[in-house]
Write the structure tokens for this entry.
Amino acid sequence: MSSGKLSMLAETLIGSEIVKLGNEIKERKRQGEFIYNYTIGDFDSSIFPIPKELEDEIVSAYRDGFTTYPPAEGNLDLREAVSSFTKTWQGIDYNTQEILIASGGRPLIYSLYRTTVDAGDKVIYAIPSWNNNHYVHLCNAEHVMIKTTAENNFMPRAADIAPHIKGAALLAICTPQNPTGTTLSKEEIEKICDLVLEENRRRSEGDKKLYLFFDQMYWTLTYGGIQHYHPVSLKPEMKAYTICVDAISKVFAATGVRVGWACGPTTVIAKMKSILSHMGAWAPMAEQKAVARYLPQEQVIKKYLIRFKSEIEERLTRIYKGLMKLKTEGFSVDAIAPQAAIYLTIQVDLVGKTTSDGQLLQKQADVTNYLLNEASLAIVPFHAFGADASSNWYRLSVGTCKKEEIDEMLGSLKSALKKLN
């Protein structure tokens, strides 16, 4: 029996396409199907375990009885550790009142949106990008989508943002970018900062300010000569308008440990804390204690990152080179050279081709299914990140990739491509 309509939000909100796809792949694998699962932005902990020192601190914290409610803003010792970590690694000063702890990035991002955005407000974000479309919908705000291109490594440029900046409430920037694994240059971030500063100077004293939501979840994972830049380090004035979200999730392969933090102006952080206090989305007490003890271990972290980054970079590079070889052989694939994060941006341009049994690949969804069924390759279309359904670009995640399977996967992909006419 139907219970009737629910709220407008419930009726119109779309769940996470990436999580849905990942769950479908897991179910198929559970039923015995072999799949090269490069969908979800997570890690296989048997390949990429969390740092042993962090694991030991978590176990110790539970044994020490740290199992009660933490403070709404996060434990003081963890906020002090985050403050020192940010100063040591990025040269930026945030005091403990400018730092908020939560159970990973998601509740921080949601509370950030709720703190800065009213219904009908303009929110500027790039497509493809992770989840901004859904957070804007949750706020019933106006979507201002900056469509990015392969020529710009799928990163938004200041020139693309400038026409929309007037009157906007929030500008969402992620670098390194999820889903693309690409980054913004120092010069481009400086130009974007100048846009924000100029717009806020233009506004009257009583007006709402334009805030920059800066997602740097993957900032430690850059490769080759690529460097990460923070708005506040480049333009100190930006500290008044920037809310940065970070976590242990990706840097330490600790997605399930659920400890994240936001750094920003005290007025914004305080309101975000109030919202979080009603959500109860706190990082667990024991994990907070453990991370507080782990973050100051600079040499231990450096040692961990050397191996961790080299293992990810090797996977990204090998797959990229394999795809480039397929491209030179005449197959309709392409990719952007690895820059950062755990993602490779790849193109599979097969719409209009016919399978060996005479089926026409009419739309990109058919291509996605063909890759899964014929090549046993599961990747996420950019459509899941807000791009057009016709986009033939994909995110390939290597967090669960076994090195010994890379050549097999490329061979399987080549076989599937050869079957098409």
Q: What stands out?
A: The mean pLDDT is 95.
